[in-house]
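Subject: for your reference before the review

Hello V.,

The reviewers asked for a structural picture of the protein, and I figured it would be easier to keep everything in one thread rather than splitting it across files. Below is the amino acid sequence we used in the manuscript, unchanged from the supplementary table.
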Amino acid sequence: MLRRIRDPQYNRLLRLTLPIVLQNLLSAMVNSADVVMLNFVGQAHISAVSLAAQYANILFMVFYGLGTGATMLCSQYYGKGDMRAIDVVEGIALRFSVIMSILFALAALTVPQAMMRVFTPDPELIEIGAQYLRNIAVAYLCWGVIEVYLSVLRSIGRVAVSTALNTVAFTLNIFLNAVFIFGLFGAPKLGAAGVALATSLSRAVELALVILVSIRSKDVKFKPSFLFVRNKPLFRDFLKMALPATANDVVWGLGFSMYSVIIGQFLGTDMVAANSFTSLVRNFGTVLCYGVASAGGILLGQLIGDSKMGEADEAAKKLMKLTVLFGLIGGGVVLAAMPFALRFADLTQAGKEYLRVMLLINSYYVMGTAVNTTLIAGVFRAGGDSRWGFICDAVDMWAYGVPLGFLAAAVLKLPPLWVYFLLCTDEFVKWPWVIRHYRSKKWLKNITRDDWAAQQEA
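And here is what came back from the structure prediction:
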């Protein structure tokens, strides 16, 4: 064990992982603060926010896909020492993210009730969720710029800066949650709408900090002019890498949102509320897993960009060992949190029984998520192999998970917990193919260009 601690690659992985884990932990704390505070308002507000937040989850998947697409290229170009290429890739990613931000914000402002009807027929939940969506539109607009810029920062190893910015934003978010949910300091009591307003204000502050960091930065800048920089070779590379990654994350995110549709439309409000608490606890259980996946992708990308293929292969093996360890720890976190969640949750007796079993299921589901996320979103994308993950997740979610859920809930009308158990088999079904692709090493490729600037001039 001591030898592992002294291993340079383990040390480098942990130095990248820990700030990202802290960032993910803070994000989970914000979500938990939402649920904890809304617990004093009522179950309807918890359920409505849980459903309305699915749109933020989908948008996050878009931004995460664009960010990882940029990271794939930027980390390799950083390993190669080409900072000009990083500026161009950042601008390309920003063009896509800004467009998506505007579309989601317009929808949230103009048709929030229609957006809520996708998830529930309950008039009370629709009205509460619509107020939430109207107030979170500003956050959507800020989010696109923030995520792309911080992804580029992380790709060159500056994970501490992005973590510091997120820490400020998340801390402010929790404080403002309390202000607007409970009406502190003379503010109005807004319930679910207060959660959205707090998120929008904290994101606006984070965007201002991003601009400040950019002004002081010597390497990665945020400049509106980057949006208009054109380079056909890098644009083609970005589309080749980022679109499958984005499509992968959107397909997975939409599929996971369809699970919420199944629960909301067919399994009742007790299951919806129990699922809100389950998702909260699972988020804490997966922070280590997502952190090591992101850090591993950055490290592997830099090694591959520097043409150190042997070192990259060895780093991938060490990454997998850490993933299994963190998956076990994550499952333990879910089990340890169970007594507190059951004691705290303001649910009906049926809702608490649902929550107990759902947490047991998630204690091992975390491991499935850990392995697949590390390999698909970390290892494979580090070598530019995002297309394989897209196909794998599309088949898994839309040919297996979603149809199985609808069949179990709407046709066979199985008990709610049996439906949930079947939904949570999706990660394990794809394990054989994911592990086989990892062992094939087809993902281990250098995707940088030496002549991207010359090709553009030509």
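For the response letter, the relevant points are probably these. The two ends are 54 Å apart (CA to CA). The first helix runs from residue 2 to 6.

Happy to draft the paragraph if you're swamped.

O.
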